Amino acid sequence: MGTVRRRGREPGVPVPLLVPAVLAVAFLVLPLAGLVIRAPWGELGPQLTSPAVGQALRLSLVSATAATGLSLVLGVPLAWVLARSRARGRSVLRALVTVPLVLPPVVGGVALFLVLGRQGIVGRWLDQALDVTVPFTTTAVVIAETFVAMPFLVISVEGALRAADARFEDAAATLGADRWTTFRRVTLPLVAPGIAAGAVLCWARALGEFGATITFAGNFPGTTQTMPLAVYLALQQDPDAAIVLSLVLLVVSVATLLLLRDRWLTRAVR
Question: The domain spanning residue 183 has which CATH number?
Fold first, then answer.
C-alpha cells in the first residue's frame, strides 16, 4: 500500500521579511492610490475632451504605435541575428543593443541630436542634400521612442527564439526550405507569443517616454507634446489636467501588465 502524504501547514512569513515586504508594498501602492483619490472625477469628462488633452492623447497613441511598428520591422531581424547566427561579436552587439535600457533617456536624446540634428553626423547631410530637418518634429518623437523602446522588443524576441524548439527549423531545412522560407513559415509562428509580448512592452515604453523626447523633439503642442510632456507642463499650469493625463497613463500601464500576464507572456514562457 502506498503511503499518503499529508500536506502540512505552510510556514508563515518570518517577521523580519514580512515587515519590509509590507513597507515595500505601501511604498509602491500609496502614490498610485493617492493619484486615484485626488483625481477630479467630476471634471474627468471635460478634461478628457479638452483640445490640449485630446492632442496629446492622439499624438501619443500615433507615435507609440509608429515606434512599435518600426521596432518590429528592425528589431525582429536583429533578435534573430542575436539568437540564431554564429557571427563573431554577438556579445558586443547584444551589449550595444541593451545600452538604451540603462542609459538615461535624456542622454539618449542628446545622442540622437548629435547624430540627426542639423549639425549632426547624419543630420547635416539630410539638411544640405535633402532639405530635411528631423529634430523638433513628430518624426523626431517616433525616433526617440523607438530608440528607448526597441530593446524591450529585441530582448523579448531573442528569448523566445532561444526557447523555441529548433528541431522544427531543422526539419524544414531537411525538406528543402531555405532560411528565409523557414523564418517566415516556421520560426515566426513559433515565436509569435514572444513577439506579441515584446510589442506590447515596446508600445507601453514608447507611450511613457519623456526624457529623450523632450530633448530631441521638444515640447510643442500638437506636434511633439506627448502625454508625459503634457503631464509635466500641466502640473505647472493646470494640476487637474495633469492628474487626468496621469490616470490615463496609469490605466494603460495596468492594462498592459494584465494583458501580458494573462495572455501572451504565459504562452511565451511555455
Answer: 1.10.3720.10
Q: Is residue 43 part of a domain?
A: no
C-alpha cell at 200: 506590447
Distances (CA, A) of 156 to 36, 133, 265: 32, 33, 10
Rounded CA-CA distance 12/9 in Å is 9
Collapsed DSSP state (helix, strand, coil) of residue 222? coil
User: Residues 185-202: pLDDT tens digits?
Assistant: 888 888 888 898 899 889
Residue 36 CA from chain centroid, whole number: 24
Residue 92 lies in a domain: yes
Residue 153 in 3-state DSSP? helix
Find out whether 67 and 146 touch, Cβ atoms under 8 Å: yes
Q: Out of 45-59, 124-138, 195-209, which region has the weakest mean confidence (pLDDT)?
A: 45-59
Nearest to 212 by CA among 100, 66, 59, 119: 100
Burial class (CB in 10 A: 0-12, 13-18, 19+), 142: buried
In degrees, rounded to 5, the angle at the alpha carbon of residue 69 between the alpha carbons of residues 63 and 75 is 125
Give the chain's domain count. Answer: 1
Check residues 44 and 160 and name the one with the higher pLDDT: 160
